[in-house]
Design brief:
74% of the residues lie in helices and 0% in strands. The longest helix has 21 residues.
């Protein structure tokens, strides 16, 4: 978060002398001009030159005033007014180091002069003499307990020193003395944030921004901290305001996109990403996120392009490889999906999901034996992955290894006794072995486990037909048709059985 350094309080000075000379009269007659000694004349002229230098400053000519006062300082270096005004001018021209020795002398000579004490404290502050500044600001506060600025600058020094509890205390006091000052609240927020008190920081940043809504830094601070404390809906308006003021701030754009995404506004998040993509050519994470957002909006081609761009930048990113592989699987590009998951497994050999996806791609690409070996490897490492074991059992069945398939269906049922697919698989095994009663038993169990699992209906209908119960089989298939009217096995067997009659 950004702290704001407000222009320090440099008190306007006043001249400590009078340039008027009292008229004198003699014997009630006409007034006569006073007789000046050479020393008095010199003193009067010097005072006139000081006043002229001050007038030059007041007219806006700081450089001219500085030249005049420096000349006077050479002539009368012990003059407190010259020291005070020249120190003041040095503060105005960012020459605090030159101001310090002058203002030290003035402050020592005028111990109760608030102007002198404030300006010395500011000189120390701007010159980086932090410990002296702290002492001086404490002295100023004793002279005027209602002045907020010494506490504000004290807070700034403690921020610099990374003493956040003392910074909080100082800024809190400044806020108490001058309530609702946006700059004080912002820096109090910084102190809280640095001290890990994020809730208090968020409230301070919000108040600061609300008090000064045109300030982009305040809006940025409020938005970022609110995002950090998961107050997403509150964060978004501040982030939007800050980004409108500074469209080139990429980190701000990404924070706004994150807030949109977390709040479910994927389209808005995508719009932000698309608006800055030309500035993100070397950021693999950005292109990965863009791929995710494009995919969420149904732009499959755009998502694929984004993932490929991410891999051009970082070809070993496991999340990008995984997402691209899955996209290729869904698209039917099985060979490339297999290659992608092979690379992923090489980079991340302990990933079970990567191995599962590789097995799926291998199977889809037509390499059933390769898929079977992968599925066997997976179930050896994780015997409770019933989804993988089912795939293995189905592949073994398709390959004709019925006993091995039955074994794996049975292993699934040890973990998940109501698994409809495994119950159906064992039922089919018994049907092929003509164990009709056992087959029917498993098919009915499968239907109970999942009343919408249509293969069990078809297989039980075939079992009933072989048991000379074609009428019951037809009714069962008609019931299955109400679940999935487009199922080819249901319609084919229903038409065949009806054509054969119920006798």
């Amino acid at each position: 978060m950004k702290a704001i350094k407000v222009g320090i309080l440099v008190l306007a000075l006043s001249l400590s002398f009078s340039l008027s000379v009292n008229a004198q009269t003699k014997g009630g007659g006409k007034e006569q001009p006073p007789q000046e000694t050479p020393e008095q004349k010199k003193d009067r002229e010097q005072k006139q030159r000081i006043k002229a230098a001050v007038d030059t400053y007041n007219q806006g000519d700081i450089a001219g005033a500085k030249v005049s006062l420096e000349e006077l300082f050479k002539e009368i270096p012990e003059n407190l007014d010259v020291q005070s005004w020249l120190g003041f001018i040095y503060l105005r021209t960012n020459e605090a180091t030159k101001a310090v020795p002058l203002l030290e002398k003035v402050a020592k000579a005028r111990a109760d002069d608030l102007e002198a004490q404030v300006n010395l404290g500011n000189a120390y502050f701007l010159a980086g003499q932090d410990d002296k500044a702290l002492t001086q600001f404490a002295a100023v506060s004793k002279l005027d307990a209602k002045m907020s600025e010494p506490y504000y600058n004290t807070g700034a020094i403690y921020l610099k020193k990374q003493d956040y509890p003392k910074a909080v205390a100082a800024f809190s006091k400044a806020n108490e003395l001058k309530p609702n000052d946006s700059y004080t609240l912002n820096n109090l927020g910084v102190a809280y944030e640095k001290g890990k008190n994020l809730t208090e920081a968020a409230d301070c940043f919000k108040k600061a921004s609300d008090l000064k809504p045109e300030n982009a830094v305040f809006a940025r601070n409020a938005g970022l901290i609110l995002l950090q404390v998961k107050r997403i809906d509150e964060a978004i308006p501040y982030l939007e305001k800050a980004r409108k003021a500074d469209g080139k701030d990429l980190s701000l754009a990404m924070s706004l996109a994150e807030a949109y995404s977390v709040s479910g506004r994927k389209g808005d998040a995508l719009a932000v990403y698309e608006s800055v993509k030309d500035q993100k050519d070397a950021d693999a994470q950005f292109w990965f996120n863009l791929g995710v957002l494009r995919g969420a909006k149904g732009d499959t081609d755009g998502a694929e392009n984004a993932y490929r761009k991410a891999l051009e930048i970082d070809g070993s990113d496991i999340d990008t490889l995984n997402n691209l592989g899955l996209l290729l699987l869904r698209r039917g590009a099985f060979d490339e999906a297999k290659t992608t998951f092979e690379k992923l497994c090489g980079i991340n050999p302990t990933s079970l999901e990567a191995k599962i996806n590789l097995a799926a791609a291998t199977s889809k690409s037509g390499d059933r034996p390769g898929a079977i070996e992968l599925w066997k490897e997976i179930v050896r490492k994780n015997s409770r992955r019933v989804d993988v074991r089912l795939n293995l059992a189905d592949a073994l069945w398709a390959q004709g290894d019925l006993d091995a398939a039955k074994y794996h269906y049975a292993e699934v049922l040890k973990v998940d006794p109501k698994n409809a697919g495994a119950l159906n698989g064992i039922g089919v095994y018994h049907l092929l072995k003509s164990n009709l009663d056992q087959a029917g038993h498993y098919f009915r169990m499968s239907m109970q486990a999942d009343p919408k699992y249509v293969p069990s209906y078809v297989n039980l209908a075939l079992t009933l037909e072989r048991s000379n119960k074609r009428s019951d089989a037809i009714k069962l298939l008609e019931r299955a048709a109400t679940i999935d009217a487009s199922n080819e096995d249901v319609q084919k067997n229903l038409q065949r059985m009806k054509a054969a009659g119920t006798g």
